[in-house]
Amino acid sequence: MASPRIIGSVVATAVIAGAIAAVAIVWRPAIAAIDPPAPQSFDSALVKHGRDLAAIGNCNDCHTVRGAKDFAGGLPVPTPFGTIYSSNITPDAETGIGRWSEAAFRRAMQSGVNRDGQHLYPTFPYDHFTHVSDDDDRALYAYLMTRQPVRAPARANDLAFPFNQRVAVAGWKVLFLRHGTTQPDSTKSAEWNRGAYLVEGLAHCGACHTPRNALGAEKSQASFAGGDVDNWHAYAINNQSSAPVPWDNDALFQYLRQGWHPDHGVARGPMAEVVSNLSEVPESDVRAIATYMAGVFGPPTEERKLRGDEALARASSSQVQPANGGTTTGAQLYVAACAPCHATDRAPPFGGINLALSSALTSPDARNAANIVLSGIRPSAGERSPIMPGFADSMSDGQIAALLDYLRTRFGNQPAWTNTSDIVRDIRRTQTVSLQRDQP
Amino acid sequence: MMTLKVNGQDHKIDADPDTPLLYVLREDLKLNAAKFGCGLGQCGACTVIVDGKAVLSCVTPLLLLEGKKVTTLEGLGTVETPAPIQRAFIEEQAAQCGYCIAGMMMRAQALLARNSKPTDAEIRAELQLNLCRCGTHMRILRAVHRASHLMQTADASPAQRSAP
Q1: Do you find a cis peptide bond into A379, omega within 30 degrees of 0?
Q2: Which terminus of chain A faces fewer neighbouring Cβ atoms within 10 Å, N or C?
Q3: Which tens digits make up the pLDDT trace of A177-213?
Q4: In the predicted model, what is the mean pLDDT of residues A161-186?
Q5: Domains, chain A, ordered by start
Q6: What's domain B84-153's architecture?
Q7: In chain B, what percentage of residues exceed pLDDT 70?
Q8: Order of strands across the sheet that contains A82-85
Q9: Is the dihedral of CA A116, A119, A124, A128 positive or negative?
Q10: Which ipTM score applies to this complex?
Q11: Residue A397 to chain B, least CA–CA distance (Å)
């Protein structure tokens, strides 16, 4: 039997050898620096179009630290290979992309190479952005180059060898980067095709919702089967979806557009910024995304539809008969802490969703439920948003685990989660964004 | 029957384990500083301190308080000798109707205990969970800064004021 160390050496050697072979193939020269173009030199309609596209691309989410300047980068993005810090994409000449020509920007989007010719880590999802059209890249460029320049030097990434060698990325690209725009499917509607273009390209939905292999690339044979992001589970959004009620086109549209749906609950965690951005883009684009994704989910089977109807029936009957507790710790906690909002006839988003409809409780992964119970849902400054108190300061890990196990059994209608206590402890330790308090 | 430790005193409480702490404080112990606002953990008027942390007493059942120390506003100071946080809120006249203020003070007190000199942004982020309908937010902010200053200079004696 090979020891993990030997396997590790073999993998490392293979990665390096592959990288050296690959670098010759994918080496790219620097593109000449330009003087930062004057904001007035861009057409205002193009800038506006670029703003909508940047929102669909969710660019601000990774390229902005909470509470800091827009697009100035510096957000730590945890990966299995170490921490990568997002870059400054404001038009600052020294620390941003102020000296990037449109060609340099387009190359970064299509090939993951910066102006100097260095390979960018695929945390920047150019495996999706390579599908973005030249026209849309032009609009995005116009939008970003007309933002406020912010002086914010890049933070050094914290990666282990061999992943700290950018040349390794060249090997990764040979293996996993497929260029070219998605081909329209003439058998499908224009709306579906628009949705496919957005979802597979700029919106990069699969970056979170598709599982990744050992080298951090999306598993192409498991598209949208559910992935990990920031210690949250990005739900399966294909026919493996575990949502209590099957998703359809209208539900997807409402959820993506307004951030919640009465049969599915509210979008929170890393999805919160996505729906916030999608509330501001042309409605037709959100419709297109919903239409394409409804196809990815596929029509529900009869059995699946039946389960959905049962969940809806349970939800409405338990509203009439709220919270008959029981005597276990989990049941008592539910009655006192959850039922006042989640077992009333007050509809979402102002009342909590009936937990029979909660995707967090039917998911095979307990992390989202643990995240929500620990940190709650904080109000978003300046927008209408749901809120829920967190219980990190009043419940122990064991008490939260008891509550989660109770909720899973009573509402999830699925096999019990294992190791709930360990999951809660891990989430409490690593939950950096929602639980942070002294850094608004 | 359980023992509940509030403001340093043990109380024997005869209530179901899922009874919210707020009800026991107000109805059994007659400690009325913590207010019933929404009853849903959304407004912060019921905030008290449990083992140093600000907690919403309306969604905190008794069973979570076994062996813990509860502090209410009554436990911080009195009318004659107000605590620095209370003195600061009075001196900044931070209350209008005052319904939210006890909760505001308790959450601010918990903040100052772990961060003695919070920035404006830190205070705003912390008190985001406490709603004020009247709109004295700017005075509340000033009061928390003043309390921070009072605690650091150890000048916590009541200001010289004439009786009303």
Answers
A1: no
A2: N
A3: 998 767 899 999 999 999 999 999 999 999 999 999 9
A4: 88
A5: 16-176 (no CATH), 190-430 (1.10.760.10)
A6: Orthogonal Bundle (1.10)
A7: 93
A8: A76-79, A82-85, A158-159
A9: positive
A10: 0.89
A11: 12
